[in-house]
Write a structure and sequence with these properties.
With 526 residues, the protein is of the alpha+beta class. 21% of the residues lie in helices and 30% in strands. It has helices at 15-22, 71-82, 86-100, 107-118, 130-139, 222-231, 237-243, 252-265, 270-285, 517-524; strands at 44-45, 61-65, 141-145, 150-158, 170-179, 185-194, 200-202, 213-216, 220-221, 249-250, 288-291, 302-303, 313-323, 329-338, 343-350, 355-360, 372-373, 382-386, 393-398, 407-411, 421-424, 429-431, 434-442, 448-455, 463-466, 487-488, 493-495, 498-505, 509-516. The chain has a 6-stranded antiparallel beta sheet with strand order 8-11-16-15-14-13. Strands 1, 26, 27, 28 and 29 form a 5-stranded antiparallel beta sheet that branches. Strands 4, 5, 6, 7 and 12 form a 5-stranded antiparallel beta sheet that branches. A hairpin with a 6-residue loop joins strand 18 and strand 19 (393-398). The protein starts with 14 loop residues before the first helix and ends with a helix.
């Protein structure tokens, strides 16, 4: 006979006492063992009228250049458009703009830009009418639904500016990993207002999306570039020859001339040179800046893959509001660049969420996925949680935010729900009692749960508290999705006495939960 559950409602219960009440056979059906999935009911899941489940919206599209696989195909398309008479061109363009202009803020600029990409196939471009250029551009443009598959793995930070908010309110930014056709991932944003009782109100989202202007780094440091190639095991004999032609600080044009000079010498096989140049280009394109116009709302900005190394995705950005020793605030985010075969840890840097600088992370600790930067320096140095071996958590210090060479293991899988591996769920959060570190554990059947540890404030290498049970686990109704049996977060905040956790379920959609901070810390310190 199943055990009768205790009364669930008592005067001012501890959330952990309530958890023990909830874990009962009658509550769990026929199960005879406590299932940590029930612990997800500890949390106040924020589902007021203005914030329900944050789901992907397939209607949100961007434009992308379309280029056929062969030049002959491109040339044939151009010939067919050039063969049309002018009335037919105008009629086709009118219909195209009717179908698509309302879906984008400035579709004609997009079409002209994509026409310029193929203008080399036009013998007399000056003779073309504006309408024919636009029609040509439309034949080499496609729409892409950035979140048609999923909107997940969120993080949250305080908004840079707190203007136009009422007393007691805080404006925040959510970042999400959006995934569309071909499982290509990008970063999107939502802004929200949080009241003093931690009710969350998502601000309106427009139907428009826009990608930024891209600028490759103007100069590169020869020594740092060489060090990264060595770390990638790509500093070949051909690369050494190329670097002999470079100054200490070089531009992409100077790199191009150095490559041409070595090619002209015919000292290396074509295959060796091509492989070396491929990796040099790959690294060059991995360091760039992007800029969104100030008239573009936060929900309209999309950080879409730019370089070859992230052609299949900009994955799992962990944003953190970093306050330096002089009081300056910079927002950083570590993310994983993926090209379909290899991953590369990258870093985003911004102060206003309009201009972003993207650069590679380097060193033995900057390997694998899931790096999370502390929100301030610790003992005068940058500090990072890493998982460089793909299994355990490490703490790394550095004087240069882009280089992480040494680290110490601070946590390994211990509990049944993390037998496979552990990782972090975003940057550590500072409290009076220590650094609160949300973790994810992977257990049997690759079920992902969210746990929590408490690290010493002065020496984060010391774990002073760790829950043996998950904070969050997939509820039965949350198990199904693109990747089933997963709850996952890329960053939380502490606000108004509560830990607010945005989290994804089964790599499909996102929710938000909160928990009283003092009760959580009390449990961690027992």
């Amino acid at each position: 006979m199943p055990i009768k559950p205790k009364t669930l409602f008592v005067k001012k219960p501890s959330i952990f006492d309530e958890a023990e009440d909830l874990i009962a056979p009658e509550q769990l059906g026929n199960s005879v063992l406590p299932d940590p999935v029930i612990l997800s009911r500890l949390f106040k899941r924020i589902t007021n009228k203005t914030l329900k489940n944050i789901s992907p919206d397939a209607r949100r599209v961007i434009t992308r250049p379309f280029r056929p696989a062969t030049e002959s195909h491109t040339g044939n398309i151009v010939k067919r458009v050039l063969a049309l008479d002018e009335p037919r061109v105008k009629a086709l363009l009118k219909q195209t703009l009717k179908d698509f202009a309302h879906r984008h803020k400035d579709i004609q600029s997009v079409l002209l830009r994509n026409y310029q990409n193929i203008s080399g196939f036009v013998r007399e471009p000056a003779a073309l009418s504006e309408e024919r250029k636009l029609l040509l551009g439309s034949c080499f443009t496609m729409e892409y639904s950035i979140e048609s598959a999923a909107l997940f793995n969120p993080s949250i930070v305080i908004y840079p500016k707190q203007n136009n908010v009422q007393k007691g309110q805080t404006r925040v930014i959510f970042s999400f990993r959006a995934t569309g056709e071909g499982h290509i991932s990008s970063i999107v944003f939502r802004s929200a207002l949080i009241d003093r009782d931690n009710s969350i109100f998502l601000e309106s989202v427009t139907p428009f999306l826009g990608t930024p202007e891209v600028v490759l780094n103007a100069t590169y440091d020869r020594g740092l570039f060489k060090a990264k190639l060595e770390e990638m095991k790509q500093y070949s004999e051909a690369a050494k020859a190329i670097f002999q032609h470079l100054p200490e600080s070089f531009t992409p044009e100077e790199m191009g001339r150095a490559i041409q000079a070595v090619r002209a010498g015919n000292s290396f096989a074509h295959a060796d040179m091509d492989d070396t140049v491929l990796h040099i280009k790959w690294l060059t394109e991995s360091n760039y800046e992007i800029f969104f116009p100030h008239g573009q709302l936060i929900s309209e900005r999309v950080i879409f893959p730019v370089s070859q190394n992230e052609s299949n995705g900009v994955e799992d950005a962990r944003f953190v509001r970093f306050i330096d020793e002089d009081g300056r605030v910079t927002y950083y985010a570590t993310y994983t660049a993926y090209n379909g075969r290899e991953i590369l840890p990258q870093m985003i840097e911004t102060k206003d969420f309009h201009r972003f600088k993207i650069s590679t992370l380097n060193g033995a600790m900057a390997r694998n996925k899931g790096m999370a930067l502390f929100p301030r320096r610790v003992n005068g140095r940058y500090a990072m949680i890493t998982r460089s071996d793909g299994e355990n958590l490490f703490l790394s210090y550095s004087d240069n935010i882009h280089f992480w060479h040494e680290g110490v293991k601070i946590e390994a899988p211990e509990n049944p729900w993390e037998l496979v591996q552990i990782g972090n769920c975003g940057s550590p959060l500072e409290t009076e009692k220590g650094w609160l570190l949300l973790t994810h554990g992977v257990g049997p059947m690759r079920k992902y749960c969210i746990g929590v540890s408490l690290l010493d404030l002065k020496d984060p290498a010391k774990t002073i508290g760790r829950l043996e049970i998950p904070l969050l686990a997939p509820r039965e109704e949350e198990r199904e999705g693109y990747v089933p049996n997963v709850v996952y977060s890329c960053g939380s905040i502490i606000l108004n006495g509560e830990l607010i956790i945005p989290y994804a379920i089964s790599d499909s959609q996102s929710h938000v939960a909160s928990i009283p901070l003092d009760e959580l810390l009390e449990k961690l310190q027992r």
